[in-house]
Automatic annotation (TrEMBL):
<dbReference type="Pfam" id="PF24758">
    <property type="entry name" value="LRR_At5g56370"/>
</dbReference>
<dbReference type="InterPro" id="IPR032675">
    <property type="entry name" value="LRR_dom_sf"/>
</dbReference>
<dbReference type="InterPro" id="IPR036047">
    <property type="entry name" value="F-box-like_dom_sf"/>
</dbReference>
<dbReference type="InterPro" id="IPR055411">
    <property type="entry name" value="LRR_FXL15/At3g58940/PEG3-like"/>
</dbReference>
<dbReference type="Pfam" id="PF08387">
    <property type="entry name" value="FBD"/>
</dbReference>
<feature type="domain" description="F-box">
    <location>
        <begin position="39"/>
        <end position="75"/>
    </location>
</feature>
<dbReference type="Pfam" id="PF00646">
    <property type="entry name" value="F-box"/>
</dbReference>
<feature type="domain" description="F-box">
    <location>
        <begin position="183"/>
        <end position="219"/>
    </location>
</feature>
<protein>
    <recommendedName>
        <fullName>F-box domain-containing protein</fullName>
    </recommendedName>
</protein>
<dbReference type="InterPro" id="IPR006566">
    <property type="entry name" value="FBD"/>
</dbReference>
<dbReference type="InterPro" id="IPR053781">
    <property type="entry name" value="F-box_AtFBL13-like"/>
</dbReference>
<dbReference type="InterPro" id="IPR050232">
    <property type="entry name" value="FBL13/AtMIF1-like"/>
</dbReference>
<dbReference type="InterPro" id="IPR001810">
    <property type="entry name" value="F-box_dom"/>
</dbReference>
């Protein structure tokens, strides 16, 4: 980035301090000159040891040692590793010239290149790779990365590279054949240590170790976790058979404490086993249970056994597309994290009871669907600190059905709530609580089925959306997705947003066609301190950002602005930066990021410095596509 500090003129006192510092510096230099010359001990070290020392330096720093003396002029060439980035050179020609000279005189074992070429830059990588890949060069490590290069400008790898790889494989085989057979040391390790090693492998790979020897036949059963997906098996019946046998063996070892299943049935009449499996692990003190059933029709959902409701060992629970049956007794005294996704419930009162029966629950996520038998979701919990709410259409529902979906109610009574992640259409959700606590950080994500507006036809409920924004108007931190921003844009055409008087931090994704709504949005945030704007979808380029109103927050409170630009949105980002720079009285830091190559860091910095800044002191940072910081 480019970082800039803009400040007032120096006072006489500061100039006096500078004179004192200059005198002290001059005195220190004289003392250095008067000291007797000390003998250079490091230069007397042998070349192999010197090369080892230089090996630990970045290539750029190692090369700088060549100017120390005649003794050091070529020592850096003894380093067997070269790591070069073309962006660290003044231009591409300087980079290629350095590479040519280095390769001619060095003996590399490792070569790493990161290359950014422009249109007319010469091709040299093919020759470099060919040079180092020759058998007598003995290259062991090669890493070549091109950044943002089009297909027609890709360089071809030489044939010598493949020949070198084949020769290396042959030498490796010969070396292995010459080695004497070694004793199996790993099998002598204790069971507890081997189980720890196997726990780092996928279940499928851990099971394969059972064929190594009699010693390993049942070691994989000591791993306290089982992660399986039905699509990893030839068919659904093979998956069922393997899991049944595994759970029986785990019962003998009494070790399965973590179960994750991803299940996709081949046919609707495939045997039902999920209920049995959950009942089995629930009775054997499972701690982590994750069951996901993919693309299961509502009439074929499998039911959760009653034993799960009384599992006292359970810490984590995720249920995806299953049927929760009713029960008058639920006790999950240790459950801290619960994910309920697209399930069907007996009625909404049971879901409320189920949530409130988890006395230490902290992280709750619920994804609803329109046929789940819950019209009003009520979250009553004294312990929940993070709440995620989402929505998915029911079975067979197309996009146009989503526009006609029923408005659902939400009631939140969680005094310790800190994070609310809302991934739903706020115009389809009516919050029945009076308000959300100011201490809650709210993330409005929207969904891909979000209601859009076309030709003056409004598919969403304006009154419900306005009520939703009123309920969250006291929050201090707010993150808004692109779809929610679009909804806000059309809501403001009908009536202004409620005042977010306590809002201090705002992060928003803004489509370029909606950029002009920003001043009106900021009018609703009179005490805003920080704003992060992510410009997306460059379908229409807004050329003029002029004659915009200046909201109150720019004059009284705004201190931090960050603008992120997608490709082709760089010019709009510059105009926004100009708007904030020329109107924010107390701005302390401005950050501008972009991904394309339309702009260069140095030119952006010059343009920003030339603006009429309203703030007397501000720090500027700009980040181009290579993410190299330039600060002023």
């Amino acid at each position: 980035p480019i970082l800039l500090h803009r400040g007032n003129q120096r006072s006489p006192e500061s100039m006096t301090v500078e004179r004192v510092l200059m005198m002290e510096e001059s005195k220190a230099k004289r003392m250095c000159y008067e000291r007797p010359a000390r003998e250079d001990m490091i230069s007397k070290l042998p070349d192999p040891l010197m090369s080892q020392i230089l090996f630990y330096l970045p290539t750029k720093e190692a090369v700088k040692t060549s100017v120390l003396s005649h003794r050091w002029e070529t020592l850096w060439l003894l380093v067997s590793e070269l790591d070069l980035n073309s962006s660290e050179f003044p231009d591409y020609n300087a980079f290629s010239g350095f590479g040519d000279r280095f390769l001619e005189k060095s003996c590399l074992r490792k070569l790493k290149l990161k290359i950014l070429k422009r249109k007319n830059d010469k091709s040299c990588v093919t020759w470099w790779v060919d040079f180092v890949a020759r058998p007598r060069r003995k290259l062991k490590h090669l890493d070549v990365e091109y950044l943002y290069v089009s297909r027609k400008r890709l360089e071809v790898m030489p044939i010598s590279l493949s020949c070198s790889m084949e020769e290396s494989k042959e030498k490796e085989k010969e070396t292995c054949q010459e080695l004497p057979s070694r004793r199996d040391m790993i099998s002598n390790l204790p069971d507890s240590l081997i189980s720890q090693m196997l726990s780092c492998l996928p279940t499928k790979e851990a099971v394969r170790t059972s064929v190594l020897s009699t010693r390993w036949k049942t070691l994989w059963l000591l791993v306290p976790s089982l992660r399986l997906a039905s699509h990893d098996f030839p068919d659904y019946n093979s998956f069922v058979s393997f899991l049944d046998k595994s759970l029986d063996l785990y019962r003998e070892e009494n070790s399965c404490l973590h179960l994750e299943l991803v299940i996709r049935k081949d046919y609707d009449d495939d045997q039902c086993c999920v209920t049995h499996w959950i009942d089995h692990v629930a009775r054997h003190k499972v701690k982590h249970l994750d069951v996901e059933c993919i693309l299961v029709k509502r009439e074929f959902l499998e039911a959760v056994p009653l034993s799960l409701y009384l599992c006292e060992s359970l810490l984590y629970l995720r249920l995806h597309r299953v049927l929760l049956v009713g029960s008058e007794s639920v006790s999950l005294p240790r459950l801290k994290t619960m994910r309920l996704e697209q399930n069907v419930y007996p009625h909404e009162a049971f879901l409320q009871f189920f949530i409130s029966s988890c006395p230490v629950l902290e992280d709750l996520s619920i994804v609803r669907k329109d046929d789940d038998n819950v019209k009003v979701l009520r979250v009553h919990s004294q312990t929940v600190t993070s709440l995620t709410l989402g929505f998915e259409p029911g079975d067979g529902h197309m996009l146009y059905h989503y526009f006609d979906r029923e408005i659902l109610g939400i009631y939140i009574d969680s005094p310790r709530l800190k994070y609310l992640n809302f991934s739903d259409d706020v115009s389809k959700c009516h919050i029945l609580s009076s308000f959300i606590s100011p201490s809650v950080k709210v993330h409005l994500g929207g969904v891909r089925y979000m209601s859009y507006y076309s030709g003056g036809v409004v598919f969403s409920n304006q009154q419900v959306a306005s009520s939703f924004f009123s309920c969250i108007s006291r929050v201090k931190d707010l993150v808004i997705s692109e779809t929610i921003m679009k909804l806000i844009y059309f809501c403001m055409k009908v009536e202004p947003l409620p005042q977010f008087c306590d809002l201090s931090y705002l992060e928003a994704k803004v489509c370029l066609v909606d950029v002009e709504m920003l001043p009106a949005l900021l009018e609703s945030c009179p005490n805003l301190n920080s704003i992060v704007l992510d410009l997306t979808r460059p379908t229409i380029i807004t050329e003029q950002i002029t004659a915009w109103a200046v909201p109150q927050c720019l004059l009284l409170s705004l201190e931090f602005v960050e603008i992120k630009c997608c490709c082709k949105a760089e010019l709009v980002g510059m105009k926004l930066a100009k708007y904030f720079a020329e109107n924010s009285v107390f701005l302390k830091k401005l950050v501008l990021r972009w991904r394309g190559y339309v702009l260069e860091e140095d030119s952006v910095l010059r343009d920003l410095l030339a603006l009429s800044w309203r703030s007397s002191t501000c720090q500027i940072e700009v980040y181009g596509p290579l993410k190299r910081p330039v600060r002023v």
